[in-house]
Each structure stands twice: as structure tokens, then as C-alpha cells.
Amino acid sequence: MDKIILGIESSCDETSGSICQNGKVINNIIASQSIHEEYGGVVPELASREHQKNIIPTVDLALKQANISISELDAIACTQGPGLLGALLVGYTFAKSLSYALDIPLVNVHHMKAHILAHFIEDPKPAFPFLCLTVSGGHTQIVKVEDYNEMTVVGQTIDDAVGEAFDKGAKLLGLKYPGGPLIDQYAKKGDADRYTFAESRVKDFDFSFSGVKTSLLYFLRNELKSDPDFIRKNLEDICAGYQETLIQMLISKLTRASEYYGIDEIAMAGGVAANEGLRDRIQSEAGQRNWNIYIPKMEYCTDNAAMIAIAGYYQLAEGSTASMTDSPKPRMVF
User: Fold this and answer.
1) How far apart are CA 156 and CA 135, in angstroms?
2) pLDDT under 70 in the chain at which residues?
């Protein structure tokens, strides 16, 4: 399909624009927001204001870098949801206005489905069907993928996502936001067997991460009573044990799903897919279980418009376009 598509992503705290030409991603421009670090988490109103500042320069740079004029665009793909309502409104309203002005189609993209389709930006690409472990700050799912636009969630978290468990655990340890990458960093030097934390047990292929956070909280409260400096002295080992518990919970459900469905094409996507401990573990499991493993490059794991553009490409190929009466869906279902 010979089409030039502009992808726009603004679901949380990344403003991103990307050009996809004939199914090939040309670039991926991302404007990150550092303003949230001092608050220990994303502040929705501040995120919206930053998107307003960044949306035009980001899209303009994507077009210029690809040497594409705005009149050459055939369609615009934009994140419709899920995400923060104010943040989504900025990107979606801009995309809808631009599609109306240019009289070209708008394509509604589901953020988590786009994470999965990030695997088709570059080679190697997974073969259908495959299982994808989608792990982010807001979602933890195991998805059975039959085709580009045919996906079924077979397992998901019933409470917090694993990304939240990492960040909230980091907050308990006094680490700066975003804390997940810092836990990963300290864990590399720690002993994962020294401290263990309780795993929540839930049915089938679903997850629950509330219990492990509570386990860490009570553990720290107890140790700090006798030694107020306990965290500083043992930070690396605590991080290693906590991260190992979270990774084990993910891998155990993924292996069960692989065995149940008889699928050895295994993919991983989402922001937490950038965690080196998790990447190493899933590669190790692949060697033992003869899995074919697929993990996008780091820049395509975090929120980005390249995945939105490629998802829009495959949806447009099937004739899926939006209506001018459509609106953002912060709780958009899979």
C-alpha cells in the first residue's frame, strides 16, 4: 500500500511524531517531559500543557526530517486511548483538525495494540500467531496475536501494572521518579537471593502486583525500626530481590500461556520491556524453551509515534478510518 502516514502520540508524558511511508517508518521524533520528576509522578495538567507546547514543533520536525510536505500526507494516525484525557485531547484534537483541513483520513489507534505492532517496524518480525507480553506503567497483559488487527487479551493485571509496581517500590526506597530504571540499575550489583518478597497468586494467566508492594512496605518498616540507615546500606540487594520477584511473576505466567497455547513465538513490548533484568531473563527462558524472542529497540519500547504510524498503516490497509464525531477514550478497551 503506497501511503504516507503521519503518526501522533500524546497519551501520557511523551509528545511524538513519526512518518511512515509505504509501511516503512522514516523517523521517530520524541519530546520528553522532565517537569514531572520533582513531583514523583506524572501530573496530568502539567503533561497537557507540555503537549500543547510541543505538538506543533514535534510534528513539524518529523515532516522536515523526512523531507515530506504536509500536502503529501495520505492519512494521520493518532492515539485515541487509553491514556490521560487531557494529554490525549491535545494530540487527538490536533490530528483531527489537520485531517479535516487536508481532507485526508484519520485513523484511531489503540495505544497498547500499537505497542505490539512496534515489532513490525524493523526486522526480525514475529510470525503469526505469537504471544506478546505487554508491560508498561499502566498495563500488564499477555496478548495472543493472530494478525495485525486481530488480537485477544488472555491475561492481564487485576490491580496495578508492573510499571507501577516498579515506580511505587522505588518511591518506598526513596528513589527519584521514574524509579523503575533506577531499581534495574541497582539490581545489577545486588544479590537477588538475599531478600525475597511475597508473590500474589491469581487464576489463569492474570497478574496481581499489589501484594508484592505491600510485602516490600512491611519489610522496610520492620527493618527501619532497628536500623534507620537500613535502605542505604542494603539498597542494591533490596532492588535485586524486589525486581527478581516482579520478573518471576511475569515469566511464570508467560511460560504457562506458551505451554497452554502451544506457541513459541514470544514477543515483549511496552516501557518496562526496556528493563535489562527482564530482557536478560526472557532471553534465558528462550534458550531453555526454544522460544523465538522478539523485543523492539529501546526507542520503540517507550511511548512513541513510530508505533502509532505503523499501526495506522495496517488499519488503513483494512479500510479502518475514524469519524469526525469520534473523541479520545482515556479508558479505551482492548
Assistant:
1) 10
2) none
Superfamily covering domain 127-295:
ATPase, nucleotide binding domain (3.30.420.40)
Would you state the cell numbers that stand for residue 201, as one nine-digit string?
A: 497468586
SS3 at position 152: strand
* Predicted model pTM: 0.95
- Strands in 140-147's sheet, in edge-to-edge order, are 150-156, 140-147, 130-135, 265-269, 292-294
What DSSP designation does 207 have?
Answer: B
Domain 4-117+300-317, CATH among 3.30.420.40, 3.30.70.1450, 3.90.226.10, 3.40.1170.60: 3.30.420.40
Helices (H), the chain: 44-65, 85-102, 111-117, 162-172, 180-187, 210-226, 230-261, 276-289, 298-301, 305-317
Give 140-148's long-range contacts (Cβ < 8 A, gap of 24+).
140/207, 140/209, 140/250, 141/112, 141/334, 142/205, 142/253, 142/254, 142/257, 143/112, 143/116, 143/334, 144/261, 144/263, 145/116, 145/267, 148/117, 148/120, 148/314, 148/317
pLDDT of residue 315: 98
